Structure formats: structure tokens, C-alpha cells
Amino acid sequence: MPATALAQPKPAKPPAGKNQPPKDAPPPPPAEPPPDQPVEPAGGATGEEGGGLGDICKIDPTACPSIDLDKAAARDMNPEMYAVQQIYALRYHRVEINPYFALTMNDQFVSHPGPGLGINFYILNILAVGVNGNFYQGLNSVSAFNLETQRAARVGEPINEYQWSAAANVTYVPAYGKFAGFGNFIFHYDFFVHAGGGVISTRPIANIDPDNRTFTFKPKPMGQIGGGLRIFFNRWLAAVLEVSDYIYGEQLESTTIATGSTNGVPNSQNPTTWLAPGVSITNNVQAQVGLSFFLPFTWEYRLPK
After folding, report:
1. pLDDT of 63-86, one tens digit each?
2. CA 178, 180, 182: angle at the middle one, nearest 5?
3. SS (HEC) of the chain
4. 175/86 Cα distance (integer angstroms)
5. Cα–Cα distance between 1 and 114 in angstroms, integer?
6. Which of 19, 86, 90, 91 ranks highest by number of CB atoms within 10 Å?
7. Does the pTM of the predicted model rise above 0.90?
8. 131 touches 94 (CB < 8 A)
9. Cα distances (Å, whole numbers) of residue 96 to 36, 90, 193
């Protein structure tokens, strides 16, 4: 069959001049498109090399676009387009002032709430050096759990109270981003971590033998590590959520009461018997909620030419 088909003669050509329009006849008018078919856009939708928007009309007349490519190509364009948006709130060479309030997270027997203040200077946009301090005196409170345990089990737990703390630290900002909230409002945020060291002033609370024992505050070396989240409301104001661990060696109250007397003075009243031997490593983990103010309030971007 293929060979037979190839052997078929070519159709005969019509005689010259037959069914042909005269040479001086005007060209026939273009055919009118059907009423439901859109007209191909002016300016040559298919382009010089064929294809383009005209092909869409051939495939699906209902989806045929009505764009004038010549007018669209002549529009003014903004040449300054950036694939990555500029950082909303620069930190480079700015001072951050961070007042906050702290709450104890890991002590069931006594809490150490208190106000605090942090000040950081950003050497780089992601690296800062600073100081921070906390004030606790008068705000320490023994928990109801501790009182109930003592009353029910007749067991006393050594507890301590804090007076103040101060530390120097280094802050690093590893990541930042943004998210949408409250409709169309965009919040910018960053994560940060910090570490440093300083001093904390504490003393035991007379819990085992309060009738005879009294303690004074003493400063102790302290390490600090933590991290948090900062959410910007504008370019100079942000809310800060932070968790910090203050690590230091604590002297605890002795759980035993000395008996007997020396030179007529009861040994229970001798201050050398009030403290337990050795030092106990203590972690004061606290949650901090506050605000950050960045100075100066404004700055200018310096873009490459």
C-alpha cells in the first residue's frame, strides 16, 4: 500500500487563466471573524517571527488577550529593581536601649522577679557589645508550694534571694525576616543570642532555723547566656522576648542545726555553722519581656552606584 500510494499521479493543474481573477482586479477584502471570536490585537500580536499572543487566539479564542504589545513595550520602567529587599531596621553603629521586666522560670520554691536594663552598641549589623543589669531586692517572694511542703512534710528547702546583678556580654544576630499580621501590616523581626559574664549579689533566706540565723548579701562571679526574638513596630522601636540563664556558685543554708554550746553560747547561734559546706552551681533562668529603642532614630541607606 505505501508503494502504491507513492505511485499515484499528481493532480492536474487548472488551465491558465481559468477561475483566476483579472490582473487589474482589487484584492479581496479580509474575511470577517465570527462574532464570538476576538479580533487579533493591533500592532502584530504574533510578532515578526510568528507565535506570541496570536497563538493563544488560535488555540482558545475565549482566552485571546487584548493587549497592545506596542503600547505595553513603550511604557516607562523603573530601572532600580532589587531581588532582595533592603533591611528594614539597620543596627550598624546604632545604640539599643532595652528596658525589661524579668520573671523566674525554673525555681518552684522562690521567685526572683525584677526590672532590668540592657544597653548594646552594634559594631556590625549583626554583632554588638553591651552591658545589662537586674534589680531584685524587695521583690523576691517565697512560693506557696514551699510553705505547703514545709508544713506537710516537715522538710525545709534551702532558698536564696537576689539583690542585683550586672554583666557585660556580646550579642550576635544570626537571622532576620518578616511576617504579615493584622491585615496588610508587615512585621519585621530578628533572632539574637548573647553570652557574657559579670557579678550577682545574693544571700540565703533563713528557712531552716530562722530564729537564730541571719545572712547578708555577698557578690559572686556569674556567667550569662541566652537568646530571644525582637519584633519591630517601626525602624527604631521593637518588642523583645528573651530567655537568659544566669549561672553562678551559690552558698546554701545548712540543713542541720548545730547542737551544744561554746563558752556558754549555743552553737546554733555561731555564724560559721549556718552555711552548708561547698558551693552549689545555680541556674537562674528568667524570661524577659521589654522594649528596645534604637538610636539614632533615622539613617540613610548608601547604595552602590
Report:
1. 666 667 677 778 877 666 555 667
2. 140
3. CHHHHHCCCCCCCCCCCCCCCCCCCCCCCCCCCCCCCCCCCCCCCCCCCCCCHHHHHHHCHHHCCCCCHHHHHCCCCCCCCCCCCCCCCCCCCCEEEEEEEEEECCCCCEECCEEEEEEEEECCCCEEEEEEEEECCCCCEECHHHHHHHHHHCCCCCEEEEEEEEEEEEEEEEEEEEEEECCCEEEEEEEEEEEEEEEEEEEEECCCCCCCCCCCCEEEEEEEEEEEEEEECCCCEEEEEEEEEEEEEECCECCCCCCCEECCEEHHHCHHHCECCCCEEEEEEEEEEEEEEEECCCCCCCCCC
4. 14
5. 99
6. 91
7. no
8. no
9. 66, 11, 15
What residue has cell string 488577550? 65
pLDDT in tens, 84-140: 667 788 899 999 999 999 999 988 788 999 999 999 999 999 999 999 999 999 999
In order of their start, the domains of the chain are 95-295 (2.40.160.20)
The grid cell for 153 is 512534710
Q: How far apart are CA 58 and CA 46, in angstroms?
A: 11
